[in-house]
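Quarterly update from the structural biology core.
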Amino acid sequence: MNLTINLSESNIAMLETRARAARMPTKDYLSLIVGCVLDRQRSQNAQNLANHLNEMATCLVPDTTPGEMEAALQVALSQIRPRRAWQP
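Predicted structure, tokenized:
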């Protein structure tokens, strides 16, 4: 993928300096940084989802059946999904 990023002169200089210190071409160094950030975001999103599911699980009534949980999930999803009008 090719991408153009507009950075300030000071940020460009900092990236070039850090890339040289890492003995990498600047574009490879920047690619590595972006990849690391995306990996961290994906990991954080997974952790946030796990935390949310754990929080939701603490709100369940102990006798709730899997069928009741599935029905509640479908109701919740139907309320947040956009209404669609399918046309032939």
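Residues 28 and 35 are 10 Å apart (CA to CA).
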